[in-house]
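I trust your eye. Have a critical look at both lines of this record:
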Amino acid sequence: MVAALISLFFTAPAPLDMPRAEAYLVREDGVRRLEDRFDRMDLWTSQTLIGRWTDEGDRLFLLSALDTCPPVIGRNGTQTRVEYESRRVPMKRVRANADFPAAFREAVEALSPAPVVVKPRSPRLLPRGYKEVYYWQNPTNYSDIVCTFLPERTNVWFLASWKLAEGDDYPTQMALFEDRFLKTDFPSLVSSLKSSGKGRETSDERRERELLRRDAHHSVAAYSNWHFTDAEEFAVIDDLPSRDFVETLTNDFPVMRAKYAAAIPSPLDGSNVLSVVRIYAMRDEYLDALETDGMTNMAWSAAYWSPQRRELVAHLSANDERELLRTIRHEAFHQHLSYAASMISTSPWFNEGYAQYFEDDQDADWGEDFDLTDENVERLAAAIPGVLLMDYEQFYGGSDFERRFKYRLAWSVIRFIEKGADEVRLKPFAGLKKRYMDALIETRDMRKATSAAFKDADLLKTFIAEWKKFWKKR
């Protein structure tokens, strides 16, 4: 029993969740820009937690550093990262006694999995290497251990909480916590903890990116098996045993991002965009991330874009690097378009069409399901107006074949826009993409944006006629 429990501490890491963001379109002096705002408590919690670990018995272990006071939640509980940083209040030095100030108690209550007592208790024997240790769980609570402790040679208090499994022997768990965690595992972790940095003091826009970079690093800084790869406009977090795929991705990613931006420039004047890619080695970890983000309907997938967390999340299975690279290119375009469109929902024909277009770096065909006879091209063309006006429920609905049909039809429209539209005499489709993006941001309505892109029924008829000519030549 004890041997199995000892393996819990710092051996089964669960990366910390990135704080959840809401996008705001800010207009100042004629400048339009995207601003990410966060729940202050979410920012505080994500930065206060050091690490999270689980085991097969569903035990959950959390470790936090109590160096910052919980934020005061007023009428407006959201802030940018820069605003939050400027208003962070360091935890005042807490004397080594049980008379804890209100902010300290609030922090313990916010992070504890169980109600805390009014007066915490000390262990009979203070572990070596600590000034003070206090237990905050009710003495009759045999399901949780909630402990604050002040190591020697520091003024920063830490909090550890351990949610036990049903049937655990409480005295054994308590002895394990004190003898294994406090005496051995915690000192070892602190000595090896990777710094996530403080970011550089520059413009607010740049500073937002640096703080996002720091938060991404912090989410895995406590885990020896997780890696953080940093670049100017993106960061990759992974627990892969080999660095080969990450090296391939970091070479490919900036090239593809440049192609996204060239194809779909943002109407916004600047952005704090930093692409964060998180790659899991184990599928179970990926499925847990899906559940956390409320996307269990995508359990079939290998990657997805999480708009709230501002992360592209992926899973690398054995011998599937090429397919995952294609999938990441697809999802990374969704990520680019989300920022370019100020997180406003874009039309599926535009969003999914371009994502497919970039999957194979713009080199793909219709596939075996579609025979491009003149008769079939005419049938496909007749479906274009309906697909252009579909919302996501309509676009994703129907049978597997119907879904594939809509995806490929959307791709074919984008392929024509990128490879054929400029060849049409008098260039009637010039400015189509810009009209779409401008109207989307102004109206926040994907159908109105589509109508603005094609301007009128005559232009749409011309577009479909030229689309048919383009594909009949293939």
Observations:
- The chain has two domains: 2-192, 225-472.
- The chain has 16 helices and 14 strands.
